[in-house]
Amino acid sequence: MKKNGKYAILFAIGTFLASMAFLVPGCGWMMLFAFIPLLAAERLATLEEKRRFWLFHYPFFLVWNLATTFWVCNATVGGGIFASLANALQMSLVFGLFRWVKKRLKGGVLPYIFLAAAWIAWEKYYLDAAQISWPWLVLGNAFSRTLPLVQWYEFTGTLGGSLWVWTVNLSFFGLMTVLSDGSWGRWNAKARAAAVIALTIAVALPVAGSLGIWWSYDETDDPLDVAILQPNIDPYNKFTAMTQQQQNAILLDQAARAVREHQDTVQPLLILTPETFTADIWADDPMLSHTYRRMTAFTREHPGTNILLGAVTHDRSATRPSRTARQWADGTWIESHNSALMVDSTGRRDIFHKSKLVVGVESTPYPALFVPLDDMLGGVMGRDVGQDSVTCLTFRAAGREIPVGCAICYESIYGNYCRDYIRAGARLLTVITNDAWWGDTPGYRQHLSYASLRAIETRRDIARCANTGISAIIDQRGRILSRTPWWESSTLQGRVNLSDRETFFVRYGDITGRLSIFVFILLLAAALIGRWRRNAL
Q1: What are phi and psi of 227, to 5 degrees?
Q2: Distance set, CA 126 to CA 104, 297, 443 (Å)
Q3: CB under 8 Å to 72, separation ≥6 — which residues?
């Protein structure tokens, strides 16, 4: 027991730092040191020739996942457990691959460069390509509530934060290593000074640069008035305890009060409703929906008003359009979508279908494999269908046409994806969501904070509408200017600024992720070639 005591201490310190970085506002900086205990334990294990070190690093990642995302179990126990187990396993595999490469590259700094590159390359794949992804703990997300430190995300995106985390952790660990093994005493004065200066730059330069941007950033001044409706309808009872007509009455009453409070101005008004507010809309003919007709009538009664409506929508077909379509009793094939519609008085219709779908709940990944299995189980998995590419909704009022990007719930976690809204012309970002599935846990607060990172990356104001809260207006620096309470019916009125600016990140994309993939492949190839050569000899 005493022999493993030092590992237990390092385990406790590391998981504490990593968890607090995500759970406690203002503690994102802890992530800059959270992996040092893990790296120290790995070095000890190497020196002691300790076997089965995965019994340390897999529990490390598992505890971190459970501590920060346990709240997923409030919505689905099985899904929450699977997400933590699988995400921790992937982290552990990356770390295990680092240990394998470390043996082949025979020490030095290259294995640690490989570790950082492999980790960020995995995050890049998770964010952009994987059908089954859970990117909640992307390392750069840790700074979502320490925004003055990461204003440079407008250049790098969130993966730049992941690179910063690894750079600082590895720099401190390297300095600790040379101090502990006596190498420091063999270095000359110039080498020591260079090491200290490099570490100082790694920590201080991003902070200084970010603070400079934070204090000097000039918000664009092109206002649009918004009213964010938070009806506070319990999603677990939404379709059983209350009819859609009753829910419509609640929402339209809020909208009417918002318009009355806004009537002294001559400015147009964008009204936001939450994700999946209604489920009675046919995508090919929304006017068949009682809810849609009510919303359209409201905009006619109040010229200059548009409603951004969250809805479950459906397409029907006589033949099966895709593997994920479901067949109704009358033989009709139905495809469902989690959608956002822009409703105005002109009768023109804009609709966007959510593309980044929650695995299991909304989508069946790898349908060729899992749809037949799901059919055998009675259709327990979601079968929503998303768009192939991002499009904007258009706000039309007072002679203006304003492209609006609408990230639906889970989509707001994906920075490179939200960048596509700006590339499509969005002058404003909106987020519509329903966070109540998780209860009063850190989940909805973390989700809100991630929207601030999207504001920094794109330099767009964000209007966020959540069914049960927290709804908010976020400026281009990521600051939450106003917000609603949690689990209260509320209406938030305010003003957002439109922008045509393109940040470096929007223009050129995720350079950090692409470079990391290149370095990962290069160093992995070097390790494989080195092993092949040794085997050949």
Answers
A1: -130, 120
A2: 27, 43, 20
A3: 79, 80, 83, 84, 438, 443
The answer on pLDDT for 25 being more than 80 is yes
- Token readout for 168 is 């600082």
Rounded Cα–Cα distance for residues 382 and 374 (Å): 9
CA–CA distance, 535 with 201 (Å, rounded to integer): 42
Three-state DSSP class for 272? strand
Least confident range from 263-277, 295-309, 399-413: namely 263-277
List alpha helices for 143-231, DSSP H: 153-156, 158-180, 183-186, 189-216
d(CA 429, CA 60): 37
Question: Quick check: pTM over 0.85?
Answer: yes
Query: Which pair of tokens denotes residue 283?
Result: 């995508």
| Structure token pair of residue 370 | 């899992």
CA distance 80 to 150: 30
Rounded Cα distance, 88 and 69, in Å: 12
List strand residue ranges (DSSP E) for 209-324, in order: 223-230, 269-272, 278-282, 305-317
Q: Identify which has the larger pLDDT, 20 or 381.
A: 20
- Closest to 61 in 3D by CA, of 101, 90, 39: 90
Buried b (16+ CB within 10 A) or exposed e, 362-399: bbbeebeebbeebeeeeeebbbbbbeeebbbbbbbbee
Q: From the CA atom positions of the chain, what is the Rg in Å?
A: 25
- Left if phi > 0, otherwise alpha if psi is -120 to 50, otherwise beta: which for 431? beta
C-alpha 270/C-alpha 308 separation (Å) is: 7
pLDDT score of 531: 67
Locate tokens 């079968």: which residue? Answer: 383
